[in-house]
Amino acid sequence: MRGSGPAIDTRPWLLLTPALLSIAALVVVPMSFILVYSFYENIDLAVDRVAFQFSNWRELLDDNYYHVAIWKTLRLSVIVTVLAAVLGYIPAYFIAMTKFRQRWLLLLLLILPFWVSFIIRTLSWIHILGNQGALNGLFQWLGLIDAPLSMMYSETTVIIGFLHVFLPYMILNVYVSLDGIDDNLEPAARTLGATPWQAFREVTLPLSLPGLAAGCLLVFVLTGGSYVTPLILGGPNDYLFGNLIHDAVVSELNWPMGATLSFTLLVLLGLVVVIYSRFMGLNQLSKAFR
Amino acid sequence: MSAWKLIRTYTILVYVFMFAPIAVVLLLAFNSSQFGGFPIEGFSLRWFYKLAENDAIVRAFKTSVTLGLMTALVSTTIGVLASLALVRYQFRGKDLVTTLLISPVLVPETVLAVGLLIFLRWLHMPRSFLLLLMGHSIVALPFVVLVVQARLVGIKKEYEEAARSLGASPVQTFFAVTLPLLMPAVFAGALFAFTISFDNITATIFWRPTGMETVPTQIFGMLRNSISPEINALGFVMIVVTVGVPLLAGGLARYFARKKT
User: Quick one: closest CA in A to B243, which residue?
Assistant: First the structure.
């Protein structure tokens, strides 16, 4: 502490000014604006009128189209999160526990996908599962099929696309948690007579739950807020709530409705973050960067 | 230990799942076939030449690189200052400030994009390159802060205090002591910011002015028809830029660090 006495030290606030001003102008104020704008009235394409009325909110409550989208989004986010947890936990465990000397290489490979363009990673699945994709090519070459199997543009491909992009977040978070566990705990449980499985289930697993929860939160929120992946890998029925926002703002130029939908998504996903931070705090999320 | 072998095999399979699609893009970039997919007919660089002749893509590439560099500059400058405040000073409301600083990742990007767009509309400002720059900088800021903060914690305060006690001013201390020690973190933060900007599509689709394309939006637009082989070549170039450059930088840094000792 360098501050002298009760006088407020202005230096940290000076250093924080540019960041806080930007956050205020570009995040906080715009977030309140979408609420204000959701009461405006849409008149025509890209034309709206200042008003205080509830037609946008009423449309959201009445029209089943929006309810279906919320349900689809929730469902898909849960599926992707659970699959990511199942797929990601075991590799994280392996990386944390291995005696393999090139562990840094495994970790580097885990971070590497963050640097590979999201859109390239997403569209690459068309090369694997598409009609001209690797799998169809392989099956035809082996003589298993005559005509290409149609595997693309379904909910499954959307899920695969999400998993592929978000799995590193899960593995990294679980790994950070597992890596922080004292190496002696599991052997100690073993000497006290626990089977390997018991030692894992009663010692390691509970201690790694914070990382698992952080990973799940990230994957859930990131999936729930997306709209690009379904556009690239999904069929006409594979839309998320984010796609409705995209359609309202970019295609229909209905800004008040876009604002209403955005605010709804913010509240729905914000609720998840708030519940999580009540139990876990937000610190766990930043641990993956150390 | 067969359970351990099972875990190892499983891990290998997950790594294959993560890297096979990327490998396929890298491979198909050199396919001479006039279609974007399999089978591979032969080795060719023709799609790279085609790419270099495609004005729209070259323009998008220039836009993306300029935007990425400027985003890195802006968000790293703001982020380093904020990190210094968070790590070097105790003050009231620190938790709230930290939450605010990482708030751009807590808000869904789609919502962040629409919110900023609507705010600008209310101000009667048209979409512009500046909007993209400000938007990308704010999206990258949390990551810069987290990376720089993590590094700053490891730099002993004593070095700075020694400089101060020898009569250096705070600003002198920052430029002569703190910044050089912090340079790897600044560099890592800037690289992170560049990658985030270079890769962004979710918010960019909302923010870009009519007629302006970045590489991801350009690829997105080209996808509407089918995957042209040019996209594979472009994918190759992008992977080399965003993966190759940091790896090379990291490798060189390690090499020189080893030489010194």
Answer: A115
Contact of B109 with chain A, judged by CB distance below 8 Å, is answered with yes
* Mean pLDDT score of chain A: 87
Average pLDDT rounded to a whole number, residues B225-249: 82
What is the nearest CA distance from A135 to chain B, expressed in angstroms?
9
Asked: is A62-287 a CATH 1.10.3720.10 domain? The reply is yes
Residue B55 class from Cβ within 10 Å (0-12 exposed, 13-18 middle, 19+ buried)?
exposed
The string of pLDDT tens digits covering residues A203-262 is: 888 888 888 999 999 999 999 999 999 999 998 888 999 999 999 998 888 999 999 999
B235/A117 touch (CB, cutoff 8 Å), yes or no: yes
Q: Which candidate in A1, A4, A20, A23 is best for mutational testing of the B interface (most B CBs within 10 A)?
A: A23
- Architecture of the domain spanning B58-260: Orthogonal Bundle (1.10)
Q: Best mutation site among A77, A127, A128 for testing chain B: the one with the most B CBs within 10 Å?
A: A127
Amino acid (1-letter code) at residue A209: L
Percent of chain A with pLDDT over 70: 94
Q: Note whether B231 contacts A: Cβ–Cβ < 8 A.
A: yes
Q: Which of B201, B205, B213, B199 is nearest to B117 (CA)?
A: B205
pTM recorded for the entire structure = 0.88
d(CA A39, CA A31): 14
Q: How many CB atoms lie within 10 A of CB A274?
A: 11
- Pick from A16, A47, A269 the residue to mutate for testing the B interface (most B CBs within 10 Å): A16
Report the alpha-carbon distance of residue B47 to residue B25 in Å, rounded: 13
Burial class (CB in 10 A: 0-12, 13-18, 19+), B19: middle
Cross-chain residue pair A116–B242, CB shorter than 8 Å:
yes
How confident is the model over A87-105, as pLDDT tens digits? 999 999 998 888 777 788 8
**Complex ipTM value:** 0.86
A3-28 residue pLDDT tens? 444 567 788 898 898 999 999 999 99
Helices (H), B54-156: 55-88, 94-106, 109-122, 129-153
Average pLDDT in the A65-78 region?
94
Cross-chain CB nearest to B110 (options A1, A33, A227):
A227
